[in-house]
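hiii, so i know i said id send this last week but things got crazy w the move. better late than never?? heres the sequnce for the chain we talked about at the cafe, plus the structure i predicted for it. fair warning i was half asleep when i ran it
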Amino acid sequence: MLVRHDGRLAMIGDEAVAARGGSNEAHRSSRGQPAVDDELLELLHTWKLEDVLDDLAKEGYTLVKELEEDLPEGAVEKLQVGQKYKNRLHNLLVHLHATHQEREEQTLQKGTDVQQALGQMRANPSSAQVQREGCEALHTLVRNNPDKEIEIAAEGGILMVITAMAAHTGDANMQVHGCCALGNLSRNGKNKSAIVADGGIPVLLAAMEAHMGHAEVLQHGCSAIKNLSRNDNNKIAIAADGGIPVMLAAMKAHIRLAQVQAHSCCALRNLSRNDNNAIAIAADGGILVLLAAMKAHMGHVKVLEHGCCALRIRSLNDNNEIAIAADGGIPVLLAAMKAHMGHAEVHEHNCGALTNLACNNRVAIVADGGIPVLLAAMRAHRGHAKVQAQGCGALRNLSHNDNNRIAIAADGGIPVLLAAMKAHMGHVEVLAHGCCALRNLSRNDNNTIAIAADGGIPVLLAAMETHMGQAEVLVQGCGALMTLSCNDYNAIAIAADGGIPVLLAAMQAHIGHAEVQEHGCGALWSLSCNDNNQIVIAADGGIPVLLAAMKTHMGHAEVQAHGCGALANLSRNDNNTIAIAVDGDGIAIAVDGGIPVLLAAMKARTGHADVQAQGCGALANLSCNDTTSNTNNRIAFATNGGIPVLLAAMKAHMEHAAMLEHGCGALGNISWSDSTPQNRIKDEGGVAVVQAAVAASGATTACKEFGQTLLRKLVHM
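okay and structure toks below
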């Protein structure tokens, strides 16, 4: 972090420019070096203001170690200022860097040996200066040196630092070096646990609370908490010790300091991976604080990356999702994406946050211009699987809204989705979200045509074949094929691209998964509206697969409705009947035990109109024509209790025209030339039911014809 010093001097090259009233020495930093603060760096990030150097000439600054990390590469060259300003800034930065290196070398010379530093601290526990210098030496030694992290911990250095901080709470510099030492040591996994075990969390939090106005204490304290919070147990401990309010207070107290915000955002990101912490952060006002940090540092990638990720995790909670949107989070997330279109991690977390927020805020995200931003991010990072996965997820949730389906397609979303799926065919999350987004989009008729025209059908089938063991991919893939096949041309294309064997393989691979079976049966129902597809489905073994789905999921209404619909279509095809008969199998649906399955479905779902209508349709087709096979079907129909099932369906759904038509047709077929079923129909009260069906206001011409023919037979018996 780079922090402003209270002095009024900036060194520019060899010049010492004194500001209002005072000598050069009177305004030097207490550490002896000038520096640049976050406010200046923020200006450098934006490349907008030409008065940066004028500010430098008027203010004194304190340099800390993050100068090189925070200053964007090529910053000086990119500044839109005159060459004179560029030269002055370049000279300033060279001077600052040299001074910084010189101070680091001096610090190392004070104690480069761990044993020596710890020995001095043990020998002088009450000396604030010795303890402060010892902590300073330790944090310098351990920087970027994993071996020293281990050595210091092994020699008891962690407890000594914590003890020193606790003994000298009022010494701000002591707390700076102690926090910095613990922050560096906590990069080691074992040290994370040791620091907490030695009581480090309360000491760090006490330092931050006692010195809330001291930027460096907060910077290094937040950094230490950030590192510690990567451990699951520590997440709980930090919250239990009151760490969340302290972190939020630090962010509010130093909103202009990017490193305080970046470390705190990262700490909150880590802490919120615990569900209870996520709730607590929101309850303590953390959402507004995070958004304020992001708005104040829109040019700082780390603040945005960690802030976006924290919001993404918190938005998994429904209440937090609502709060983030209510607090203006959506425009902030979108602004962050637009400001850093080239930064993949910012887009990954932003897209993830928008995925979660889109569960309840679909209209607001689109109203704020979210779709073009999402698509731009996906185009900019085609090779980044996580960006594509989260982008597809956001489009998936947004596309549950009718108007959004139109907007996504209009903004070029369909080719972007397909490109993501093709580029990441091995990534389950990309494909699951992509298939679902295409499924939702295809509920719009124009999109159905566009998806096929853009090559969507082969992509969907490839996704399913590649991940035949992944139920979620198959659920969404089958669902997309179901909606796409409602278009006649797509139904032909899906079969031509080998879609029927893929669907059947998916259903067989996941016979116990209700959603796979539901959407698979639905796709076969739509596809079987085409005469040629009826032959292909039967030839590829589709009938046993459908019956297995229905038997396995007898309690699932949609599986039964879709299965009955598919069987009704398949049983209508004469070529299919002839082909199966030539093989000596009779009517395949009946031979494979279809009649008992159909009747069981109807009995299990008496109140479901589609199950009843499609079941009656299948039974009517199976019992039509006077062939040997169909005569056997009529007998099977009657002996399995089909007559009372049909009559119950008709009585329960007198308002359903297709139901009545199929019911009258089926009853007429089974009793065509046999007095036994005719008597059974009369005994079950069928005359009154058929009369009511014929007289129903919505009765079709076919219903009346079938019903009146049947009534004439029954009356004249």
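btw The chain has a mean pLDDT of 82. thought thatd interest u
miss u guys!!
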